[in-house]
Write a structure and sequence with these properties.
The chain is α/β, with parallel strands linked by helices. About 50% of the residues lie in helices and about 10% in strands. The two termini are about 40 Å apart.
C-alpha cells in the first residue's frame, strides 16, 4: 500500500505524446529542437513555471515539470510547435504525482520505447535534463528523480536481458536493408546527419553490412570529418548534398532539421533508391514515396520488426519492473525524509541544547562527558524519530517523544 504523499508531489506532471497514438507526421508537429527548447525556457517564467524539462525524440515529445495544472505546461510547450495546444491535448497522456514518476522510470528503462529495451533514450534524457539545468530549470526534486531513473536504467541493463541483442532504431534500419537489398556490395550509401542516431547508424553499417562505401554529410562538417576518419569512410560538404543524392543507392537521413532536407523534386527521374528517414519531424519530403523509383521508409515502419531478440526482451519485463519498483521506493524514502528534514533539524538543535544544559548534570561535570558522545546519543534518537516519521508518514511534532528517548539514552 502506497503512503499518502505530501501535497508538493501533486503538482508534478508529465504531458506527452508518443508513437502509440501518433504517426511520424503528427509527432513532427510537436518536435522540439534546441532553439525551440531555449525559447520555451525563456518563456517559462511568464507562465509562472520554474522547474521543468522536455524530452523530444523520434518516439515522443514530453514535458515534465511542476505546475498548478498540466495545461500550463502544454500551453508553454505549444508556443514553439507547429501543432496547437488543443490538438496536443486531444492526443496526449497526462500523468500526475507518482504516476508521472513511474512513467519516467519506464521511459528511462526502455519499457516505453517504440522498440522495447532501446536504451538510446537514456542519452537523450541526460541531454534534455542537462539543457534545462544549464538554464536553471532543474530543482532538487527533478535532479534526484532523474538520477534515480538513470540508476534504475543502468541496473536493468546490467542485471536483465531487456537490452540484449542489437535491436534499436539504428539497427532496425540495417535489418531492413539486409532484408530488402539482395546484396550491398557495390551499393553507394549516403548518411545525412551525424548526431547520436546517425553515428550509431554509421557504425552499424560498417559492422553488420561489412561495407565502407559510405559518404557522410553533416551541417557541421567537423563532425562528419571526425567520424569519417574514425571509421575510414568518406565525407562531403553540405552544399554537395544534391550531387550525392543523385549518385547514392541507399540514403539514411538522421538530421535534425525543422524542414525536409531531401525533396521529392530532387529524386524525380533519378535512379532507384532506398531512403530511410530516421528523423522527427521527417527530413525527407513524404510525397517522395509517390515516385516509382523511390522506396521511402520511416521509423514507424522500422519499429514493426519483431524478431526473436524482441521476444526474449519481453520475457525480461517482470525483472525490470521489480528493479524499477525498488528504485521508486528508494526515491520515495528520500522524498519523504526531505519533507521531514526541517522538523528533524529543529528537534536535533533543541535536544543538543537540552543535553548540554540539563542532562549532563545527571552525570556530573559536563567536561567528563565528551561532546562526541552527546552527538552520538542525539543522532541515535533522531534516527529513531526519523524512522517513525517515515513509517507513519506524519511529519508533525515528535518533540516530546524525542525528549523521552534522549532521557532514556542518558540514564542508561
Amino acid at each position: 500500500m502506497n503512503p499518502i504523499l505530501p501535497d508538493e508531489l501533486s503538482k508534478f506532471f508529465v504531458a506527452g505524446i508518443n508513437y502509440r497514438k501518433t504517426d511520424t507526421s503528427i509527432r513532427g508537429m510537436f518536435a522540439i529542437d534546441d532553439d525551440r527548447y531555449a525559447n520555451i525556457l525563456d518563456l517559462a517564467p511568464v507562465y509562472n513555471l520554474s522547474s521543468l524539462f522536455i524530452i523530444s525524440t523520434c518516439n515522443r515529445t514530453e514535458i515534465y515539470g511542476f505546475a498548478d495544472d498540466a495545461c500550463e505546461l502544454v500551453e508553454l510547450l505549444c508556443t514553439q510547435t507547429t501543432g496547437n495546444a488543443e490538438t496536443f491535448t486531444s492526443i496526449a497522456y497526462i500523468k500526475n504525482g507518482m504516476d508521472a514518476v513511474k512513467h519516467l522510470f519506464d521511459v528511462g528503462a526502455g519499457l516505453d520505447s517504440q522498440i522495447l529495451g532501446d536504451y538510446e533514450i537514456t542519452g537523450q534524457l541526460k541531454q534534455a535534463v542537462k539543457f534545462a539545468k544549464s538554464h536553471n530549470f532543474v530543482n532538487c526534486f527533478l535532479e534526484r528523480l532523474v538520477n534515480s531513473v538513470l540508476q534504475s536504467s543502468k541496473q536493468i541493463r546490467n542485471e536483465t536481458a531487456l537490452s540484449s541483442g542489437t535491436v534499436s532504431v539504428s539497427y532496425a534500419a540495417i535489418e531492413y536493408i539486409k532484408a530488402n537489398i539482395k546484396t550491398c556490395k557495390g551499393k553507394r550509401i549516403l548518411v545525412v546527419g551525424i548526431g547520436k542516431i546517425g553515428r550509431n547508424t554509421c557504425k552499424n553499417l560498417v559492422d553488420y553490412l561489412g561495407t565502407k562505401n559510405i559518404m557522410l554529410i553533416n551541417r557541421s562538417e567537423e563532425k562528419a570529418v571526425e567520424l569519417a576518419t574514425e571509421l575510414g569512410l568518406q565525407h562531403a560538404r553540405v552544399d554537395q548534398l544534391a550531387e550525392h543524392i543523385d549518385s547514392s543507392d541507399i540514403i539514411l537521413v538522421a538530421s535534425n532539421a525543422a524542414e525536409p532536407v531531401i525533396l521529392k523534386s530532387q529524386l524525380a527521374c533519378k535512379s532507384t533508391k532506398l531512403i530511410i528517414d530516421l528523423s522527427i519531424p521527417c527530413n525527407v519530403e513524404p510525397t517522395a514515396a509517390e515516385l516509382s523509383n523511390i522506396t521511402l521508409v520511416n521509423i514507424d515502419t522500422l519499429s514493426k520488426i519483431n524478431d526473436e531478440t524482441l521476444l526474449k526482451r519481453k520475457m525480461e519485463i517482470p525483472k525490470a519492473e521489480k528493479i524499477i519498483n525498488k528504485n521508486i521506493a528508494d526515491f520515495l524514502d528520500w522524498y519523504l525524509m526531505r519533507k521531514n528534514a526541517p522538523a528533524l533539524n529543529a528537534i536535533k538543535s533543541k535536544l543538543s541544547y537540552l543535553y548540554m544544559q540539563h542532562f549532563s548534570e545527571l552525570k556530573g561535570d559536563p567536561n567528563k562527558c565528551p561532546v562526541i558522545a552527546a552527538e552520538k546519543k542525539i543522532q541515535q534518537v533522531i534516527n529513531s524519530i526519523a524512522g517513525k516519521m517515515k513509517s507513519q508518514n506524519q511529519p508533525g511534532c515528535h518533540y516530546l517523544e524525542a525528549i523521552n528517548e534522549l532521557i532514556a539514552a542518558v540514564e542508561h
